[in-house]
Amino acid sequence: MIINGIQFNCELMDIVTTLKAELAENGVQRFAKVFDSGEDIMVCCPYHKDGQENRPSAGIRKSDGLFHCLACGETHSLDEMIANCLGYSDPIIGHKWLIRNFASVEV
């Protein structure tokens, strides 16, 4: 998977499940339900209902990592969404998290 010109040695589902696990270790419950819909990874939106919906309303597009919630309308790059879930507003934090966890080469 290539995000912002960097090759990552993983699938998008790996990124989502790793983020979910890291957040859970810190007492934050996000992405209660996650499934692969083909072109997207569907998740419970972390931007409304505290990420605890009955069924996923948001998708993360596999081709480029674009996050979009059909219920609340939030749209973010993968970097931004990760940073926000980690409690930061700067997408650089999300980008560094991706590199630290998944980059296939040193950057």
Show unreliable segments: none
Shape: globular
Count the DSSP helices: 3
Strand content: 15-25%
Helix content: 25-40%
Q: What is the arithmetic mean of pLDDT?
A: 88
Rounded to the nearest angstrom, the radius of gyration is 13 Å
How many beta strands in the DSSP annotation? 7
Summarize the main sheet.
5 strands, antiparallel
For the biggest β-sheet, the strand order reads 3-4-5-6-7
Label the structural class.
Answer: alpha+beta
Structural notes for this entry:
Helix content is about 30%, strand content about 20%. With about 110 residues, it is α+β, with helices and mostly antiparallel strands. The strands form 2 sheets. It has a 5-stranded antiparallel beta sheet with strand order 3-4-5-6-7. The protein has a two-stranded antiparallel sheet with strand order 1-2. Strand 3 and strand 4 form a beta hairpin. Helix 2 crosses helix 3 (about 90-100). The longest helix is centred in the N-terminal third of the chain and has 14 residues, at about 10-25.
What is the secondary structure topology, with strand pairs?
Elements: E1 2-3, E2 6-7, H1 12-25, E3 34-36, E4 40-43, E5 58-61, E6 67-69, E7 75-76, H2 78-85, H3 91-102
Antiparallel strand pairs: 1-2, 3-4, 4-5, 5-6, 6-7
Main traits of this protein?
five-stranded antiparallel sheet, 32% helix, 107 residues, globular
